[in-house]
Design goal:
The protein is mainly alpha-helical and 502 residues long. The protein has nine helices and five strands. Helix 2 packs parallel to helix 5, helix 4 runs antiparallel to helix 5 and helix 7 packs antiparallel against helix 8.
Length: 502
């Protein structure tokens, strides 16, 4: 069954049906566009939501060390990735469905217009032929009537006794001429009728069926393409479902990985002061041995117990470079963190110094590649940085040793008499250890090894060419100087083996 055979006389119905199909494609395109707008808006709102609740700043970064805080941050990250998948759905729907279907729709409109135009042209040609047939038919009828009238007139003239022979002959000639003309019109009419029937047969059995079948094929292709568009609507989202599932699984995993016990331990480690609990308060019996107000005891009034440290409103001391304003445990943590940072920076600067020295050596061997003296400012600056960092490292290591020693000593203090002092000024517990580290030496300069030296004898150390060293003791005239290597090894080397760094 096809449109050309079964709907040969339903041009208007086919016209409306094909237009209705194109309208449906257009409606679907608009529908998908609105869906993409919803997806884009949804993704935008999700991103704004995650940004709003994302932690920023040092305090929040500190909180993120706890598993429940970190898990919430992971949930926000996963949700942000989820928003990205919604944006991908919107983008693929716009390009894969809306753009492609819009282009296809324009092609269908043009094809439909061409087919309908061909049908109208064929219809107009057939109607023009039919009008010509009607014209020849009317002319044949008219001429036949005139010929019949002329024949009757000739017969009447011939039977008229008063008519002359000439009149009769003239009437017969007129009737013959009219009859001949009518015969020609009859032949024209017959020929035109045959032509029209042939054209009509071609129109209804060939031209129109072919056009209608083309429209049917076009409509079926439209339906098939629209069906693919319907499937795309689902398939586009299915393609990102594995990633969306991973995002959702990540959110679930973030919840599962929370460890409340670990968070409690971490909280303790972050805020543990290291102080001992206050001891029992001694009973001071003022009823025994009361002395006059003028006695020496007035010079030593009874001690007033300070407020309990854990429950008093603490006055936050100013921050100190050695972190002595912090409780012992926190001080150690901060000092160790600072030492780690300085060590990393020192290693980085040392690597930079090594690279500069190697580059300088290359320039010296190959002057065409560069001027060795141009690197001196950088080498000098790097050497100064290394000296500064080593000085800072030694300083913080001293403070760390002080903190560790101070903590051990503070544990032996009698809390019955000292807890009030500790609460008032936590840094005082370290004062008795200050003198212990007064003799810690600091580098007095920097130098660079010109040659490799193997320190085999007692008190000497080995150095390698190009190595940067810290001078701990200058040459006192014996040709030797004491230096400190980056590794912490210290000993004597020949003074002539190094070059002082300005």
């Amino acid at each position: 069954m096809d449109w050309g055979t079964d709907l040969w006389d339903q041009y208007d119905v086919i016209d409306k049906h094909s237009q209705s199909g194109l309208d449906l494609v257009e409606r679907y395109i608009k529908f998908v566009k609105e869906r993409t707008e919803i997806e884009q808006s949804y993704a935008k709102q999700l991103r704004s939501l995650t940004k709003k609740y994302a932690k920023r700043g040092s305090k929040e970064e500190q909180d993120c060390k706890f598993s429940n805080h970190a898990s919430f941050q992971e949930i926000l990250n996963e949700l942000n990735d989820y928003a990205g998948q919604r944006e991908l759905i919107a983008e693929n729907m716009m390009t894969g469905i809306c753009v492609e279907l819009t282009k296809y729709l324009q092609e269908l409109k043009q094809e439909r217009k061409t087919h309908l135009s061909d049908a109208k042209k064929a219809q107009q040609t057939l109607e023009s032929s039919f009008k010509h047939l009607e014209s020849t038919k009317k002319r044949f009828a008219k001429e036949w009537a005139e010929a019949d009238k002329a024949t009757q007139q000739a017969e009447k003239t011939e039977s008229d006794l008063n008519a002359t022979r000439l009149d009769v002959e003239k009437a017969k000639q007129h009737a013959h001429a009219r009859t001949h003309t009518a015969e020609e019109c009859r032949n024209d009419y017959a020929a035109q009728l045959q032509k029209y029937n042939k054209e009509q047969n071609l129109f209804y059995y060939s031209e129109i069926p072919q056009i209608f079948n083309k429209l049917q094929d076009m409509d079926e292709r439209r339906v098939r393409r629209l069906a693919e568009g319907y499937c795309q609507f689902s398939d586009i989202e299915k393609k990102v479902l594995p990633i969306i599932s991973k995002c959702l699984e990540g959110i679930s995993a973030a919840g599962v990985k929370i460890n409340e016990k670990q968070d409690s331990v971490l909280f303790i480690e972050q805020h543990k002061s290291g102080f001992e609990r206050p001891g029992d308060v001694e009973f001071e019996d003022y009823s025994q041995g009361i002395k006059p107000a003028t006695s020496d005891s007035s010079l030593n009034p009874p001690k007033v117990r300070a407020k309990l440290w854990p429950f008093s409103k603490k006055h936050k001391p100013p921050a100190a470079e050695d972190f002595s304003h912090l409780p012992p445990e926190q001080r150690k943590k901060r000092l160790q963190a600072k030492i780690d940072d300085i060590t990393k920076e020192l290693q980085k600067t040392q690597d930079q110094s090594d690279a500069l020295e190697k580059m300088k050596g290359v320039y010296e061997q190959n002057p065409q590649m560069g001027d060795p003296s141009s690197l001196e400012p950088q080498i000098t600056e790097t050497a100064q940085n290394i000296g500064r960092l080593r000085g800072e490292l030694a300083k913080y290591e001293t403070w760390l040793s002080e903190a560790v020693g101070g903590e051990e000593s503070s544990n032996t203090i009698n809390n019955n008499t000292q807890h009030g002092v500790v609460a008032a000024d936590q840094s005082n517990i370290y004062t008795e250890f200050d003198d212990e580290f007064d003799d810690i030496e600091s580098p007095i300069g920097q130098c660079t090894a010109l040659y490799t030296f193997q320190g085999n004898s007692e008190g000497t150390i080995s150095i390698t060419e190009g190595e940067l060293l810290s001078i701990m003791e200058e040459d006192k005239g014996d040709g030797w100087m004491r230096v400190l290597r980056a590794s912490g090894e210290e000993g004597y080397i020949p003074s002539s083996y190094v070059k002082l760094t300005p």
